[in-house]
Amino acid sequence: MRKLALVFYCLLLLVVPTMETSVQEKADAAIPVTTLSPPEGNTTFLDGTTWCVALAGVSQIDLQNALDWACGLGMADCGAIQEGGPCYEPDTIVSHASYAFNSYYQQNGNSDIACNFGGTATLIKNNPSYGKCLYAAPGSVGSAAPPLSKYKSSFLWWKIVGVLLLLYKGS
Question: What is the pLDDT of residues 17-49, one digit of tens each?
Fold first, then answer.
């Protein structure tokens, strides 16, 4: 009896989230979406191309904290500001933060909120690239977050494997 309950529970875990996903997809497909303007906060299409850079006059400590977040948890591409990289010089916090902020901003849809960094950043309309240091522009980088659909089927397979292992271990 206990084995049957375990099998039922495992199958329930396998089926219910899959049903919810398909119901949500059907609901999303049934709602017509008319887009007359760009998403709120997206300045790329309203005022032309923009870049996100460090704000002048901000404390070095605040800039360093924001830079650390952008290159760490923010997952900005900070390879170019590492020693020997094309954007390492000038070796200043303002310069490095500007590159990292823009990298994050471009990867996250050019939204105003993606260029805040605790009030240490601002949007500009002039390309800040110099020499061999090229700042990303809209459309030149992909999103930092992979699409959810990439994980749906693999997650389902992991559930199936888990159920099979539980069944195998139980017998």
Answer: 544 444 445 545 445 444 333 344 444 444 579
